[in-house]
């Protein structure tokens, strides 16, 4: 199907006209997981504000404003509606930290990539070697690491640290892509997006919320590994749809919808629709594989996969209303 024909046919679903990108996404995205919200969301939001203030991360008014627009505790509440208040607070704090860290790394990496190295090396030293922090961001990460070790089993904490290190390393790939004169293709964009998604570090917290630690057979099962990849990709690609306008205006590169726009040389509404179809196939594969694996899982294994599904659901419902992505409502769904 040509991009021109898509522009004519994809702006509406079942003949119902849509006005902005958010409505276009709603009309086309497959979302089998219903909205849920943790009842402790407001307490988690207050805890995030206090925790960020403790480590001086919101001393910068721009950072404080970003957190206000991003609502990390709301994302945690939508992702993990049944999680206990203690774990929910750790998750909300970590989400807030990662948004601050990611925004700063993206800004530094775009303008002066070399200055990104000390920032990333400090994080790796904390996560891998237990080295003391030297910056406020590092101090916040060290505190998160401490909280995870206190709440999780040693194996869960080790998985948390490993996944977090992979996320940190991925930011180098993003910096290289941002400074390259030739924009990356959609396949390479997806690979980098997987590395910097920052979703899989939260899965050990989903595991810690279960009655028992998962068995090695469950956690390392090939289908379980595939479910982890599918859920993390779908969870981060959904916000890409809603943030496409914001990223386009900021000159962003690693965004699924913008990658489709570059590859197909089409308008943003068409690119968003094509990206949505890709996400739909990912979610359907997740559903199918989960259905096949579920009979083999313990109750804790089922709860763990439900936590993965929660991230897909939560990222969608959070993205629809968060002020961070309000530009999606201002962008028309047709050129």
From TrEMBL:
Give one Pfam hit by family name.
Terpene_syn_C_2
Gene3D superfamilies of this UniProt entry? Farnesyl Diphosphate Synthase (1.10.600.10)
What keywords is this UniProt entry annotated with? Lyase
Q: What is its EC number?
A: 4.2.3.7
Signal peptide interval: none
Respond yes or no to whether keyword Cell wall biogenesis/degradation is given for this record: no
Protein name (record): Pentalenene synthase
